[in-house]
Amino acid sequence: MQPTLTSSALAFALSLAFVAPATAQGPSSPGSSQRFLQADSSVVEDAAWIETLDEQLAVLLESGDPERQSAAMTLVIELRRQPSGTQPSGPYDFTECISPLLRIYRSDQREGMRLLALAALHEIGTRRVYDALRASFQETRSERVRRQTALVLHYAEAEGRTSYSGRIRR
What we know:
The chain has nine helices and no strands. By secondary structure, it is mainly α. The chain has a single domain, classed as Leucine-rich Repeat Variant. Helix 1 (about 10-25) crosses helix 5 and helix 6 (about 95-105) runs antiparallel to helix 7 (about 110-125). About 25% of the residues are buried. Mean pLDDT is about 75; it is low at about 1-15, about 15-40 and about 165-170.
């Protein structure tokens, strides 16, 4: 049995992910925009949708709209946390999302958005992500964001996600 995406946040994120492309493409065949607005597990299984998901989420992350950014980050987290039987590392790699997430993590004025970006980056969990987080650590002014970043980097190393053996200086 495959899990379904039922939370309202995921439904909202899915609808946001496809409203812009559907409307930007202009009029099309009847029913095609309905397919883009559908927000259930059948959409997640659509191969074409999966191929463009990374790009769609990157557009939302770069939108500057906190609601859309938050929904996109939540979707990244939820999809990466799906049971390993359905997608161990995914058809979802989210590499297009890394740069916009790092920008939000480094420079958003809202601490909550920065922490959500950190959580999404940790779920993506590539060496590039952890190297960028380590490089940004010293520049982070928020003590709360610094502590959470230190925890993320500590757990990533403990889980063997990174080969970094140096200590983070406070």
